[in-house]
Design goal:
The complex is a heterodimer of chains A (about 270) and B (about 200). Chain A has about 270 residues and is an alpha/beta fold. Chain A has 9 helices and 10 strands. In chain A, helix 6 links the parallel strand 1 and strand 2. In chain B, helix 5 links the parallel strand 8 and strand 9. Classes of the chains: A alpha/beta (about 270), B alpha/beta (about 200). At the A-B interface, helix 2 of A face strand 5, strand 6 and helix 3 of B.
């Protein structure tokens, strides 16, 4: 057994320790990304090995929360992949219009950029007032940022371009107020968004959704956890409800795949029947 | 003695022509997978596999998440995602922040490839205008793998090969026309058990 094998044992023990102490279960996450992020941190803080870092993680909550942020931070963007929003606007919204009340679950909302994108889309299509958006993430720090809806002004050019490509009907600047180096999303966009923490590895079903947005979440999970998450999505959707995944994701390996119809292949939009 | 199991390649500015040069001499029974990170514009269509396939006897495709890596295939990282290699020899994708402004990042792919293939890995750095890949090359050499770098004098952009050469004691520096042929010889020798 060489050092790399020992390191893998330490990593396994660390994930077990984090689960036992803090309740976050990373054991079924895709290992390469978790391992790389932990080793980056280890190198930066000059720990000798993972075991030494584990001691710090178990006894220093601030250190752990900081690491947790690094483990769960993935870059979010407003109207990321604009063709998705075009497809939602033209093909999915007309279906959703048939309902008197809409429930939408935004899974793994991170810092909130895609949730606000959805709120804007619903507003422009006249559906926002009858919608309830549930935005969840396992990380409370990220949820807080999402709720604040404050973003770096430097990113706005990209977001505005995305918004226009996504078929936006208004001027994007109508949706935020600009300050020195940041923008704050309008309060009215937040009225029907409920932010709460939810962990796909350990928590249960969210009821009777018409649409679940779960984009670029499954790529971080191994097959087993992907299957669990997709099972949760299936159980949380009402019949005829839609599931929208990330462009590089698929349901084809999940047990529940046979109960979904692939309605827009390129945009990874599925419908429960 | 190394019996190599995979080849990883990083390239950036000018990389498409360099990759064509690299792949052209390889026969259709080349025994290892070749995994490529080429920097592309985030919104570029994934045309690269198609272009490279016309210059290559091996099947070329974009890497998919959870796909099992197979010998004799060429895999390209999708634009705007990091490509990672799992220790069960499958791919993962991620939207972690760009590393040194790059996503996909050569460093991220190389580093995770090192954890998976350890010293049974060949790394190749080609033309590029930044220093992505130099950290990965350092890791690869620490683990005992083999590194080939395109001679910066023959590179359209020399920063990437130069910083790889500065980062570690690389094994071979070659003009681009010779990299593919040398790779083939290296792999054949290793399979016959001739390299130490």
């Amino acid at each position: 057994m060489d050092d790399l094998d020992t390191q893998n044992i330490e990593l396994q023990l660390l994930l077990q320790a984090i689960h036992l102490k803090y309740g976050y279960d990373f054991k079924n996450y895709a290992k390469a990304s978790i391992k790389r992020r932990i080793l980056q941190r280890l190198e930066r803080d000059n720990f000798k090995n993972i075991s030494e870092m584990q001691h710090k993680i178990l006894y220093d909550i601030d250190f752990f929360e900081n690491l947790l942020l690094e483990l769960s931070l993935n870059v979010a963007e407003m109207f990321r992949d604009p063709p998705i929003y075009l497809r939602l606007r033209h093909k999915i919204i007309p279906e959703l219009r048939k309902f008197a009340h809409l429930k939408i679950w935004h899974v793994g909302c991170s810092t909130g950029e895609e949730v606000y994108s959805m709120a804007i889309l619903l507003k422009e299509e006249g559906l926002y007032e009858r919608s309830q958006i549930y935005a969840t993430d396992m990380n409370k720090q990220l949820l807080k940022q999402a709720k604040d809806g404050i973003y770096d002004i430097k990113k706005l050019r990209q977001y505005t371009a995305n918004y226009q490509k996504a078929g936006g009907l208004e001027s994007f600047s109508d949706y935020y107020s600009a300050h020195y180096n940041h923008v704050v999303m309008n309060k009215s966009l937040k009225e029907h968004i409920l932010f709460s923490d939810h962990n796909l590895a350990t928590d249960g079903v969210f009821g009777e959704m018409n649409l679940i947005m779960a984009r670029n979440i499954l790529i971080y999970f191994n097959r087993e956890l992907q299957n669990r998450a997709l099972g949760l999505f299936f159980d949380s959707l009402s019949t005829g409800g839609f599931l929208c995944l990330g462009l590089k994701e698929s349901i084809r390996f999940a047990d529940c795949a046979k109960y979904f119809e692939e309605v827009h292949k390129d945009e990874k939009i599925y419908r429960k029947f | 003695m190394n019996v190599f199991e995979a080849v990883v390649v990083g390239s950036s500015a000018g990389g498409i022509r360099a990759l064509e040069n690299l792949l052209a001499p390889l026969p259709n029974d080349f025994p290892l997978p070749i995994i490529i990170v080429q920097h592309l514009h985030p919104e570029s269509e994934s045309y690269l596999p198609k272009i490279l396939a016309t210059h290559c006897a091996l099947p070329v495709k974009q890497a998919e998440e959870r796909e099992i890596i197979q010998a004799g295939r060429v895999y390209i990282a999708p634009p705007n995602y990091h490509l990672l290699i799992e220790e069960d020899y499958s791919f993962s994708l991620s939207l972690e922040p760009p590393v040194r402004y790059a996503r996909p990042s050569v460093d991220v792919m190389f580093e995770t490839a090192v954890y998976a293939y350890r010293d049974k890995l060949i790394g190749i750095i080609l033309t590029g205008a930044n220093d992505d890949g130099s950290y990965g090359v350092k890791k690869l050499k620490q683990m005992g793998g083999y590194v080939i770098v395109q001679d910066p004098k023959t590179a359209e952009a020399e920063a990437m090969p130069k910083s790889a050469i500065a980062a570690a004691q690389v094994d071979k520096i070659l003009p681009i026309e010779q990299v593919g042929v040398y790779l083939l010889q290296l792999v054949n020798r290793s399979l016959r058990g001739g390299i130490s």
